[in-house]
Amino acid sequence: MAVSTAMSKALTARGPSHIRHRLMATSSQQPSLPRQPLLPRRPSLTLAASPRMLPARPRLSSSESDLSPTPPSERTMTAWDLASLWIGLVVGVPSYYLAGSLVDLGMSALQGVATVAFANLVVLACLVLTAAPAVTHGLPFPVLARATFGVHGAHVPAVIRALVGCGWFGIESWIGGRAVFLLLPSALKSYQPLLTPVPGLGAAPLEFACFLAFWAAQLSVIMNGMEGIRKLERYSAPILIVLTSALLAWAYVSAGGFGRILSLPPRLTGAEFWKVFFPALTANIGFWATVAINIPDFARYARSQADQVLGQAGLPLFMGMFTFAGLAVTSSTEVIFGYIISDPIELLGRIGGPATTVLAIFGISLATITTNIAANVVAPANAFVSMSPRRFTFAQGALITALLGIACQPWRLLSSSESFVYTWLLGYSALMGPIGGVILADHYIVRRTDLDVDALYSENRESPYYFQGGFNVAAMVAMAAGVAPIVPGFLHKVGLLPSVSEAFVTAYNNAWFVSFLIAGTVYCLLCCRRGGEVKYQNS
After folding, report:
1. Angle, helices 205-222/155-182, rounded to nearest 10 degrees
2. Own/partner long-range contacts of 63-68 (Cβ < 8 Å, ≥24 apart)
3. How far apart are CA 490 and CA 167, in angstroms?
4. d(CA 413, CA 327)
5. Which of 36, 48, 86, 481 has its CA 20 to 30 A from that of 223?
């Protein structure tokens, strides 16, 4: 504790306004830069030869400060804070559904847990590598993306990530609205005029009102900015752990133990298992692929690299444990009720009396809010601020995100079968994979972890990140190359193409891996063709 306190005070004492991050220009006549460590070190206190004021540091307005480098005095997020964030993200209805879907595909409980744990180990590697420069420089994702895609091109991955987040925000809010619906009096829930879908809207008035109530409750937290989100995650994590444990204990006692569940032989063996394993693995990676892209939005507040690594290291464990809980509880319902109840909201509505129902619904509402705000609001809000820093603040960007969540009509998305979730997850993982592949290849292979923070906030045509008109064409081409092989398989999956080559089906079933590797490889090759490392110009 003393060491942590000393480090925190030292960071606070370091004046951020005079620190410069400047890359030395590289050319064929000059010696190459020495290889940098895998995780970037904190910048030294040396000054640039030609000092000029950092455009990112003066906080002229709240909108500009939302994207400015986080000063050391505000980097207070500990390993427990990040672990609490992930507990809040993991414990939610979508994770529960995802666990149950593996059983529906034919996996045993142990196969399902192993698949989820392995997928999250892959996600963890991407999280740590993507978060490292954010911890070093205190930069959010929209700003870091400028180093790879250009000062204007960075809007492309930011908007893609934002739109996926808006869709998920609507889905999670609709799930939370269903929890509110269960708390209503029976007489109101049985009044038929309020349960008849409105033509054109596609949702019943009472359900839509519950959706809007839950939607509004989340806004009260969002409007407090990152500090409000951090407090919610910190204090809700222990509550969610207790409630999940209580639900698991209830299932254990009511079903007479989990021996029957664990002893069931797997329905999938040999080639049949591997045919299901890879799509399931990709779907589980896609589940967190969005957060893996914008984790800098949170990691920028971490005290140190050790805090961000240790705080995120528990993800595979948390996800594996919650997956087991979901699998065990879902399987136990067949013994308890005589049939499987895979919907946790429906299950919680059937447990105990009114007091138990209220407590259970409170827990599921808290789980939904913590997941939704952290995973689906921060990135879209920062993306909108990045597009127009003088026009939008974080709160305004979050409000736009919430409104677009309604426009996505999540009740229509959730009215489809469970396979749609896999189509949704696999489909957008083909967009997240190339973004992650290009960013990591650029930062660790092409640039060797070096960043010129000053230039990231400059639109000067001589800036090293201006590229071609503000766009890095190589990054755009590489991202398109990663998506292209997945498109035929996606069109076939949704029924727009009657038949495609088996190679395209395989590529779609492994969408994240294929798009990630192709985009990263193409980007490195394009950079090599134009002279190795990206060359910088001295101002």
Report:
1. 120
2. 63/385, 63/389, 63/390, 63/391, 63/392, 63/393, 63/394, 63/396, 64/389, 64/390, 66/140, 66/382, 66/385, 66/389, 66/393, 66/394, 67/140, 67/142, 67/143, 67/382, 67/385, 67/386, 67/389
3. 18
4. 24
5. 86
